[in-house]
Amino acid sequence: MNETATIVTRPRLAARRRAFMEAAMAAFLEKGYANTTLDDIIARSGGSRQTLYALFGGKQGLFEALIAERSDRIFAEFDAERLRDARPDDVLVGVGIRYLETVTSPDVIGVYRLILAEGQFIKELAERFWEMGPGHARALLADYFAQQTRRGTLNVPDPEQAARQFWGMLMGTFQMECLLGLRELPGPEEIDAYARSAVARFLDGCRAARE
Description:
By secondary structure, this protein is an all-alpha fold. The protein folds into 2 domains: 3-57, Arc Repressor Mutant, subunit A (Orthogonal Bundle), CATH 1.10.10; 63-204, Tetracycline Repressor, domain 2. The chain has helices spanning 3-8, 11-31, 38-45, 49-56, 59-75, 88-103, 106-118, 123-132, 134-150, 159-171, 174-179, 188-204.
């Protein structure tokens, strides 16, 4: 049985893992990544150092688990093979809404601020964040665009560039305004409307020509 399956089948271990992650997020946002110690996280969570090491391997492992969880939340249902017969409109709107909900949530806004503040000093932190978050998201979308182009549903000569452009249209100024504290976090209705509009405009330039 692998580690993930073990956690799922052991509720107490799963609860401890969640407590560590919540404690780590609170400590990172309050003190910064570099200034947060394992003792800080252990004191907040009520767990033990032995269990923390067994679950995450250390502070970097905790950070990576936080980023991976949020990425999984966005793409939990994004399986290019399973979705190949679904309409791109539906697929991209679903992904877009989950993405905007995630990146404009208070804790993820905090993570972005953390990376912007400390990533220039801790290059590995920035690299892992990109690899497990935005970079992972873009790669999944590029694969999906390539598959849909092969099927004749879309016309995307450069899937990687298209993935970058889609994220750019989707993000708009939402996240930057939220990061700077210039606006309230968007609600579900605003996110839904904006995601649908961005997807419609993007697909207008990507649909395969019909005879």
